[in-house]
């Protein structure tokens, strides 16, 4: 698995390309995936994440986010609304 720093930066940059709200649910926390600081404090805590994506480009965002998380060996579930 690559370093968390690379994962955090790439995840935030990927999320930033979309206008949709992209929120990571981890345990009892909700983190805006576009926030590098939020990701730094969360990605090290746990290995079970749920991603909530809402907005006009949500489908494209879900696909891109799933790819970037998988690339860095992070397990996510994308919430279906």
UniProtKB/TrEMBL annotation:
Its taxonomic placement starts with: Bacteria, Bacillati, Bacillota, Bacilli, Bacillales
- Going by the entry's taxonomy, the superkingdom of the source organism is recorded as Bacteria
Pfam families per the UniProt record, alphabetical = PTS-HPr
Q: Indicate what this protein is called per its UniProt record.
A: HPr family phosphocarrier protein
In terms of Gene3D superfamilies, this protein maps to:
HPr-like
Q: Which InterPro entries match?
A: HPr-like, HPr-like_sf
Q: Please report the organism this UniProt entry assigns to the protein.
A: Paenibacillus zeirhizosphaerae
Instruction: Give residue ranges for domain HPr.
Output: 10-70
């Amino acid at each position: 698995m690559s370093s968390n720093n690379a994962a955090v930066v790439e995840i935030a940059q990927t999320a930033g390309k979309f206008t949709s709200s992209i929120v990571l649910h981890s345990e009892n926390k909700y983190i805006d995936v576009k926030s590098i600081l939020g990701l730094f404090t969360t990605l090290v805590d746990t290995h079970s994440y749920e991603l909530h994506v809402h907005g006009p480009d949500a489908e494209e965002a879900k696909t891109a986010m799933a790819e970037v998380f998988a690339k860095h060996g992070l397990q996510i579930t994308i919430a279906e609304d």
